[in-house]
Amino acid sequence: xxxESSTEPLPFFxxxxxxxxxxxxxxxxxxxxxxxxxDVESHLQxxxxxxxxxxxxxxxxxxxxxxxxxxxxxWYPTLxxxxxxxxxxxxxGCCFGQDLRFLAADGVPTVNMYAADIVSxxxxxxxxxxxxxxxxxxxxxxxxxLDSESPLKVLEGKVNILLANQVFHLFNKERQVTxxxxxxxxxxxxxxIVGWQVGSSHGRPLPVRTxxxxxxxxxxxxTRLFHNDQTWQELWQDVGKETGTQWSVETSMHxxxxxxxxxxxxxxxxxxxxxxxxxxxxIS
Length: 284
Fold this sequence. Notes:
Layout: H1 23-32, H2 40-52, H3 58-61, H4 69-72, H5 76-84, E1 89-92, H6 98-105, E2 113-117, H7 120-130, E3 139-142, E4 159-163, H8 173-186, E5 187-200, E6 204-212, E7 218-226, H9 229-243, E8 247-254, H10 263-266, E9 273-282
Parallel strand pairs: 1-2, 1-4, 2-3, 4-5
Antiparallel strand pairs: 5-9, 6-7, 8-9
């Protein structure tokens, strides 16, 4: 049982960047953003501090937003090629839009990019983070993916690639189904839903302590479902039945340490925490 009055520090905050700053990400900030090599880490510390004061998300507290996971997905080269040929992409729960910046640096036109997050201030911060306000043309939509009548409805049936990194694992099974159904409604008949997230070798729900409204906000608790391959496949079978669609689902499992997590980063997740990469291709 979580003590909602607890003043203990949240378990997913790291002062130092550590192994999360991979060479690919450092190169992005130096070459795409034009930040001097010696200034990169202090720049990141300053922006992360501003973001943490807005929302205490694990991806911010643990520097996960720096991981170049999307660019390392086995399907990434095909995804880039499809986008270069004119397909559109929507980054759900985009935070700073960091994955879209990797795509832009790899030659994907930003005019066909959309980004959505419930916290619009992250998007504003992204231009300070990447220093690209003058040339990055993705369209941001403030929206809650759990709301089927959100402003994202304008994209219904129009999006070719739906990127959902580190989002599904924020919710319980019921909300994950709701999210997936809403993604299906936004996608084209040949849509891909692609992403990576924390999973569990056991495929289990996890009670977590949360804090909303930044570092001075209120504490609470929630339950999240961490997937393995079997439970992820089952989720999309359920979604397919409820939406009248069919999906080819492929996953890849990895130790979180291979992504850049340290042992203390995953202690709060309990035993069996793993990384899961996935692509869901609509086939009918």
